[in-house]
Design goal:
A hairpin with a 2-residue loop joins strand 12 and strand 13. Helix 4 packs across helix 12, helix 10 packs across helix 11 and helix 13 runs antiparallel to helix 14. This protein starts with 21 loop residues before the first strand and ends with a strand. The protein is built from 15 helices and 17 strands. The protein is an alpha/beta fold and 417 residues long. It has a domain of 204 residues: Rossmann fold (3-Layer(aba) Sandwich), CATH 3.40.50.12710.
Length: 417
């Protein structure tokens, strides 16, 4: 998870408040050409897809530095070892279950899709190297990413694991891998899948489109008829496309839908057989007419959550710095559960990161860090000093706090036998 969420406060209105037309700030030629080829206007979902994953100029493919203090956000796997250890425990339990079920002695593949700099993979494998070395011949870790520059950074971060005998592989897409039982892990990936922004505040549903003016110097958010895939997803979630029936479930007259989530799950399910999907992201369970079948209660209402991040700053101008700022929106875990169920997955866990890390012994770990901090010489450069230990304890406490970061981020585990 990345430090780029402050609770998903609504940025909309009635109609939802798109930003005023924005100068393009050097709109990349390839993205401008794609909008021009579509007639000068694309759905917001298509715009988001281009801005993030365009082959030449997308945020995650352009090869510049997005992660870390010099980038746009810092990921928790890079900052808080407790997160990686909690994930290591969870994924190890799932691997053990798959190995027991298969009973054929073959290794289990772990796909990490969208692994960033490789911090979570490195953290989990380092934990296993210490406490579960028996998994070394029994798992194969595969990182799948859209950017070659990210793969290069991952390979650098995981060079030690390869040297230690762990099997680590790389690929571009889920379809590039063979059929096998597997555990699929994503951390802050689903929030970057494109969303359709729908206004249900009037007598008919309207969708946000992104329009390029005749001079190709400005982008503007305009409202028009929704595209078929957006209406189809709305029907999946609410059983209707009538605004009067949907409006009570929205805090601001906006519903964000993500048909790409269904397609993503379908792509990773192909050839899986038995396996698990572990999703870590920020979001929740918005109320709707039919939520879980006997599952968790809703914890929020739908609203506009889309925002940008640039140099650690949250931005509501979505149409400047295209391809240079991150775009992200809260995850509807109820929709994730629904689409998974229709692909044969059962949800066996939905909880906060606070609960997950507490169950992994997080509170005892914080106390141990505080105790060690009081004992070490703060100026001894040969060991971790007290300041470093206090900093790690501080971030771990935020992860354990359901009113802080630990409550914003959720984990869902879906299994198929």
């Amino acid at each position: 998870m990345a430090e780029k969420s402050d609770g998903g406060a609504a940025a909309g209105g009635t109609p939802p408040a798109g930003d005023h037309p924005s100068t393009l700030h050097g709109l990349p030629a390839s993205i401008a050409a794609a909008i021009r080829a579509a007639g000068g206007r694309v759905s917001f979902a298509r715009f988001m897809e281009l801005a993030l994953t365009d082959a030449e100029a997308g945020y995650y493919t352009r090869g510049e530095r997005q992660f870390g203090r010099s980038g746009d956000f810092v990921t928790v796997p890079a900052r808080i070892p407790l997160f990686n250890r909690a994930m290591a425990s969870l994924v190890a339990d799932l691997v053990d279950a798959l190995l027991d079920t298969a009973g054929n002695g073959l290794p289990v593949s772990i796909w990490e899709i969208g692994g960033g700099r490789g911090d979570m993979a490195a953290g989990i494998l380092k934990t296993w190297d210490s406490v579960r070395p028996d998994l070394r011949p029994r798992v194969r870790w595969r990182l799948l990413d859209v950017g070659r520059h990210l793969m290069a950074r991952q390979q650098k971060a995981l060079a030690w694991a390869l040297a230690a005998g762990w099997t680590v592989e790389w690929g571009a897409t889920p379809d590039s891998c063979i059929s096998e039982p597997r555990v699929v892990v994503t951390n802050e990936l689903v929030d970057a899948l494109p969303i359709h922004i729908l206004n249900v505040d009037g007598d008919r549903v309207r969708e946000a489109w992104v329009e390029m003016d005749a001079t190709e110097e400005e982008l503007a958010e305009v409202w028009s008829h929704p595209c078929p895939e957006a209406l189809s997803e709305l029907t999946e979630l609410f059983g209707t496309v009538q605004p009067a029936d949907i409006r009570p479930f929205s805090a601001d007259g906006v519903v964000e839908v993500r048909p790409a989530m269904r397609d993503f799950l379908a792509s990773i399910a192909r050839g899986m057989g038995s396996g698990c999907v572990v999703t870590v992201d920020y979001g929740g369970l918005p109320a709707r007419p039919a939520l879980f079948e006997g599952g968790s209660a809703p914890d929020r209402r739908y609203q506009r959550t889309i925002r940008g991040y640039l140099r650690h700053e949250r931005r509501h101008d979505l149409y400047s710095h295209v391809g240079r700022q991150d775009l992200t929106a809260d995850v509807d875990f109820g929709a994730l559960e629904l689409h998974g169920r229709r692909l044969g997955f059962d949800c066996i866990l939905y909880t906060t990161i606070a609960n997950l890390t507490a169950a992994a012994g997080g509170r005892a770990e914080v106390e141990a860090l505080r105790t060690e901090s009081r004992q070490v010489d703060g100026v001894d450069a040969s060991t971790r000093n007290g300041l470093d230990l206090d900093r790690e304890a501080f971030y771990a406490e935020r992860l354990l706090d359901p009113e802080d970061v630990g409550g914003l981020y959720r984990v869902m585990v879906q299994v198929r036998e």
